[in-house]
């Protein structure tokens, strides 16, 4: 199990500018749910959308085997099988740091502000974040973490 077919120990490939907002999509091609946790930030659950897992997975594996050329990456929208589904009632309008990624769906989250805490906390020596700063996102099922269903991501200065 990996995120983006990249083992955890590989260097970060996701560089986000400080203060930026992004929508992340978690594609779950499996038959079980994954509670995905993003370190450092809170987010809003936007929606989930069902996909043709077999079709998307075949295209994605072909892309991997073909060398991961960005221009050839499969367009996820080609495999949607239904409209977006709103967040669950316990998710709507509230900040989260973990989201349930249901089987055979795309789960979208909105991260509105990638600004790490820079202030020193008086009771914690060495606290305060210096950029670039690396964090992780991962599945909260321990066996899945152990099987590399986690990846680092990095916040860089807005002017870099």
**Strand ordering within the main sheet:** 1-8-7-3-5
How would you characterize the largest beta sheet? 5 strands, mixed
Q: Output the structural class.
A: mainly beta
The end-to-end span amounts to 32 Å
- The CATH superfamily appears as Cupredoxins -  blue copper proteins
Q: What's the average pLDDT?
A: 90
Number of helices: 2
Radius of gyration: 17 Å
**CATH class (first level) name:** Mainly Beta
Percent of residues in β-strands: 25-35%
- Tell me what the CATH architecture is: Sandwich
* Helix-strand topology string: EEEEHEEEHE
How many structural domains can be distinguished in the coordinates? Answer: 1
The best one-word shape is globular
């Amino acid at each position: 199990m990996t995120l983006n077919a990249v083992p955890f120990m590989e260097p970060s490939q996701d560089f986000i500018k400080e203060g930026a907002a992004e929508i992340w999509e978690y594609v779950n091609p499996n038959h079980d749910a994954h509670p995905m946790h993003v370190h450092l930030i809170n987010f809003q659950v936007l929606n989930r959308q069902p996909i043709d897992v077999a079709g998307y997975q075949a295209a994605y594996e072909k892309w991997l085997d073909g060398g991961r050329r960005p221009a050839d990456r499969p367009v996820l929208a080609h495999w949607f099988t239904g409209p977006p589904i709103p967040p669950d009632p316990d998710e709507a309008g509230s900040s989260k740091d973990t989201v349930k990624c249901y089987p055979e769906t795309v789960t979208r989250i909105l991260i509105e502000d990638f600004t790490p805490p820079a202030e020193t906390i008086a009771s914690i020596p060495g606290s305060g974040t210096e950029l670039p700063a690396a964090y992780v996102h991962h599945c909260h099922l321990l066996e899945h973490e152990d099987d590399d269903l986690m990846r680092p991501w990095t916040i860089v200065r807005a002017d870099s």
